[in-house]
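Table S2 (text version). Query chain:
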Amino acid sequence: MLVIWQPDQVGIAILCDKTFVGRQPVKVFLSFSEYRFWTGKGEYMDHLLEDALQKQNRKIAYFSMEIGIDSKIPTYSGGLGVLAADTLRSCADLSVSTVAVTLLYKKGYFRQKIDAQGNQQESPDEWNPNDFLKLLLNKVSVTIEGRTVFIQAWEYQVKGVSGSTVSIIFLDADVPENNPSDRALTHYLYGGDQKYRFSQEVILGIGGVIMIKALGYTHISRYHMNEGHSSLLTLELLNERKGKAEPIWDVNGVKEMCVFTTHTPVPAGMDQFSYDLVSNVLGGFVPLDFLKEIGGKDKLNMTLLALNLSHYENGVAKEHGKVSREMFPGYHIDSITNGVHSATWVCDSFGKLYDKYIPGWKNESFSLRYALHIPKDEIWNAHQEAKTKLVDYVNKETNAGMDVKTLTIGFARRATAYKRADLVFFDINKLIAIAKNAGKIQFIFSGKAHPQDWPGKDLIKKIVNLSHQLKNEIKIVYLQNYDIELAKMLVSGVDLWLNTPRKPLEASGTSGMKAAHNGIPSLSILDGWWIEGCIEDFTGWAIGQIHEAESSDKGNADSLYDKLEHTVVPMFYRNREKWINIMRHAIAINGSFFNTHRMVLQYALNAYLD
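Corresponding structure-token output:
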């Protein structure tokens, strides 16, 4: 039967078999034809009905604190948000019925400017959602510190190659009904203090569940939490299912509905909030003694809350799954290794090459294994086109005078201490000797440091200062305001991708996967995804040894210099045939596997299916 809730508002037509969120229907019809006759709206209402039916068929609700779907929509800070967007693109391509929920950050993360001395300066990255998103009619509310905070929703539709779409719902508290401090709660990504962050997570988790149901997504079978920021959604689900007379918490019922992906390999990186703060913000949403049972005895640990209320949990690489199980003994934490959306991260020149030799690759990423049959000269020419574009951009922006014929090494990650962007400069004299004797090298760096990450800011300053100090021996640039568009140029335009995190702190990493899709080999620490992706001298090269439990700066630097001096630089300049063969294997082996099409299919099989 067809139940009409608010016929005076466009699009509120829900096909269902039970009362929707406790509200009473306005009118009930037995068929679409009876409904069309009543409305007199014909094909227009057919479209609205089709939209309502699509909402009814959405089974997966994907929650993420950040989603980087477009560089012009600055609602992401880095890898977590970009991964979320790539996941949703693959869901659309593969027709995995999904709706996504995140927050609308009208002032973005921040715009980064780096001065001549290497100091990072931040400013708001303001944008107008009306330019990219559709404002929806519905408003819902949550309670924060005893106040009613209203939330509106904006929609972005991700269109897949299959014709399917995935809706991203952006939650926005900047509405006239709220006071000024509450309106600002969704202004900044990762801004403010602990109360600001926890209030944001209330809006995302609790408000997100309420909103998608108000929008008509009433048949969700799985709630996927992409990191612990959204784990308060489990409390909303518990409240929905509790007994009316006595609060009986249906923990098992909620667990069956929830999936949790952790991206953090260290306890310090997990969101934790004092129970005084939680009680102040949430009030009596759930009893405190019960919350301590499921969320941690001393503090509310958002990761622990998600683990205790999910039927499936996973890390984002095989090694990370192992590390997570050691951190949380007693939990069966699986692993699904991250990937990237192939069609998004392959540059134009390689895209044309794949269209020519691997038709259908965009929706069958596994077919990239056939890259081994692409002629080597065409691989090299496609790379040279991408490299020339990058070098021209760098020279225009920085006046660095970089040379397209010089071995160009790229490093672009979030600027933070454990990623060790400066490891390659551990012994400057050694690096200069390699550039002088083995062959010229030049470096392109990029990445933002969180505004409160002072060691990360010092890293940027150090590299900028070294670029001045070494300008006569090695050209070095640090490109400011790293975003999706700049990342696309970097991962396709450099010759070698460098990654030097401190073990075991790399959960996965995806930048090297993006590079591999463009034939760029990696020189990386054996941590995260690279443990699985490194086939020495075939897809790239390892820094250090697999058996090393923790990183030694000196040991890793020595290994890095050894690979550069005796293998990488000589091969680039004197054995081009072998270098291109490694490029082809990077595509065929790593590009064909480390993609979100494979990843989403694993989630569907392991986590989503009943």
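Notes on Table S2: The radius of gyration is 25 Å. The first strand starts at residue 2 and ends at 4.
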